Amino acid sequence: MIERVDVGALYPERRLFLDIVSGQAAASRWLPGDEAVRARREASAPASAELVRSLCDYHRPLTDSPETFEHIDALGEPGTLCVVAGQQAGFLGGALLTAHKIISAIRAANEIGRALNARVVPVFWLASEDHDLDEIRRVRYVDENGDLRTASFDWSGRGRPIEAMPSGPAAEAAKAVRAALGLSDPVWSAFQPEAGDD
After folding, report:
1. Rounded CA gap, 20 and 194, in Å?
2. Could you tell me where the DSSP H helices lie in 60-183?
3. How far apart are CA 126 and CA 87, in angstroms?
4. Which tens digit of pLDDT belongs to each residue from 132-147?
5. Is the dihedral of CA 190, 196, 197, 198 positive or negative?
6. Which of 43, 51, 57, 162 has its CA 20 to 30 A from that of 20?
């Protein structure tokens, strides 16, 4: 199993990117240093109490994670920084790229927070206003025989924002994945849309 792929093998033509990730001074001089980040942090205003309250209200039905609400509260404190990432939501969680972006935002927030001795909150937004159905309408999985399978769905509203799509088309395709993988109810409930979801 491959656990790590060298970025030089993935992006051999991206010299600036490779120089930055390898810590080359010639590339790093273009990035803001610790002092510039500290100055920007001191000049930034915290999120309004109304925004913090709205975020708490939005997340309350979704999670009971204390860490989520600690992060939201921190947005209202002076000096809090954010690492922001995002992706259009995909069928059954989407491509591995989405999970990688989420984990990278969390890790970057932790590392930057330690380096600057500051509160840094990871923020991940779902690009539900996106309209690229082809990007999100399929998922690949390995069945019980070890064969690679694809489950997909279509939607008559193609071209409209994904946030307007009812859950029905995806829910039907998801049933096929559940049957193929033999997922139990506790596992499945994390992914199963409810009637009326979009």
Report:
1. 45
2. 66-75, 96-116, 133-136, 168-181
3. 5
4. 777 778 888 787 788 8
5. positive
6. 43
